[in-house]
Write a structure and sequence with these properties.
The protein is mainly α. It is built from 6 helices and 3 strands.
Length: about 150
């Protein structure tokens, strides 16, 4: 079977222009949504390291691989990754929203401390567990899990 690479290339360009992109990448209409694209920053962790943080945070073993996949989708394992969405900053491996300052043990007056701590993989995973628990032991808060991204 002969592949028409010209047609394939035009289709790929069409998909890119329409905003259909890989998980964790900004779509073409992000500029109109009040969101900014994900900025991936290191240090970048291995899947094994993320797995250890997920386990230490208290996630059940049955969710460890799912959480590793969510972290990869949310931040490409970049501990310093961040994005703005809906007027909120999302930071770290699991892109924890500043909406969770209080539930993760911080106060509104310690906003900068919260953001800085969310770049620590262990702290981010522990806060992710709090978000998971507060959502009724559900992964719905993560767009990468629900398919919203």
């Amino acid at each position: 079977m002969k592949v028409n690479f010209d047609l394939f290339q035009r289709a790929a360009v069409g998909l890119a222009l329409s905003g259909v992109v890989a998980c964790g990448q900004p779509s073409a209409d992000l500029a109109n949504s009040g969101s900014e694209p994900l900025v991936t920053q290191g240090p970048f962790l291995s899947a094994s390291s993320v797995r250890t943080h997920v386990r230490n945070a208290g996630f059940p073993e049955s969710l460890v691989e799912t959480m590793v996949n969510i972290a990869h989708c949310e931040s490409t394992f970049g501990a310093g990754s961040y994005a703005w969405a809906g007027g909120r900053q999302h930071t770290g491996l699991f892109q924890i929203s500043d909406l969770h300052i209080d539930s993760c043990g911080y106060t509104s007056s310690s906003y900068e401390g919260f953001r800085a701590s969310m770049t620590d993989p262990a702290q981010n995973a522990r806060c992710a567990y709090v978000v998971y628990r507060n959502a009724g032991y559900s992964l719905v808060p993560w767009d990468c899990y629900t398919g919203r991204r």
